Amino acid sequence: MRILYIAYAASPYGGSEEALGWSLPLAMSRIEGNEVHLITKVEQREAVEDYLAKHPETRLTVSFCDIPSFYKKVFKGYLYPGRHGIWLKRVAPMVQELDANRHFDVIHQIAPVEFRSLGRFTPTKALTVAGPQGGAEYAPKALAGYLRPVASFELVRKLSNWLIVRSPGFRKSYRGFDIHLLANYETQRFLVKHGLREAADAIVKTEVGCWASAWHGHGQDTHEVPHILYAGRLIPRKGVELLVDVCTELKGVCDFELRIVGEGHLHEALARKIAERGLSNVTLVGAVDHATMAEQYAWADFFVMPSVRETTGTVLGEAMQNGLPLITFAQDGACVALNDTVCQFVPVDSGAHGFAEAMRLWVEHPESRPNRDAIRKVFKSLTWEERAHWYMDLYRKHIEIDATRGGGQ
After folding, report:
1. Cβ contacts of residue 235 below 8 Å, gap of 6+?
2. Which of 99, 148, 233, 260 could connect to 264 by a Cys-Cys bridge, CB 3.0–4.6 Å?
3. Residue 63 belongs to a domain with what CATH number?
4. Lowest-confidence segment of 15-19, 90-94, 331-335 by average pLDDT
5. What's the predicted TM-score (pTM) here?
6. What b/e readout covers 4-37, taking b as 16+ CB neighbours within 10 angstroms?
């Protein structure tokens, strides 16, 4: 099968969208008989060429697309997503030229993972696929207070979503794809609510993935004083301030150690709160390299993701590959990627108190935590190897349906 992937971000050494943009095409290229191409932004060239030089057996053809430097100066910070539309417009003629020469069976835009950023790649005889897409998830009322520091950005984001979903241009782009995959049910409900009824038939599928070789199911015994790990950016929507409130509520109630790994503009504020509240069991680790991060996962008994809103959260896959059960709120893509055999889902209406009770349960009753057999089973379902075969089945099914309707090649 000849497949073209379009991913604004795609790096063999990156996380989040960069990992998705690279890993799915790479996994698909390893299936016998596939010819796989990838178009990504020019900033990824150094990392991609480094990987290809180190792995000459790789059967993935990569092209790069750039945008004028003027747009890079204008669209930065909170305006950064504006680059996506410019880039996708410049990618479109590249797609048409490649398709004219290679006659692709499938053209799949996999990143950005935002419903707002869709390209137009018609006319083509290929099956066109978009997603998984998110971006229409919002913080529930019980958690929204933690987003007050970025209230203006959240307002702009809501207004942008409202305007874009109603625009004729967006609807034309959306309906230009044969298949849509959505990263969470919140985005699906948003699209349907605003008149895109066909979104009700979209496939809800997580964008989180990991390689089978990455399994590090650490087999250490449970520590007498449980070790809890958070890893992620220190920004409001990640819920790190909520996590400090949780630890404040549990102070003197139960014993545990928490490490907060990552960097962000809330670092100083968090350090101040931790000191003022006397939370000696909470350590701000800061940013760490890949090797040190592996040590952090090996140290932990379980993982927490207190995000107040999140398309999915790539750390879910990292927790699974390290054999760690997880606590998070019952919302967004976490409910798509994981299940209650490996995760304690906290009702969103219960807020910080509910999260504290969930942590207290696993601290005081370690026997209630999921076992590693259950975690490994979920991990296997998230591996890129498994997901590549799922995508192959999806593509084949829809190409065959198209052929029976007279639209085949």
Report:
1. 150, 264, 265, 266
2. 233
3. 3.40.50.2000
4. 15-19
5. 0.92
6. bbbbbbbbbebebbbbbbbbbbbbbbebeebbbb
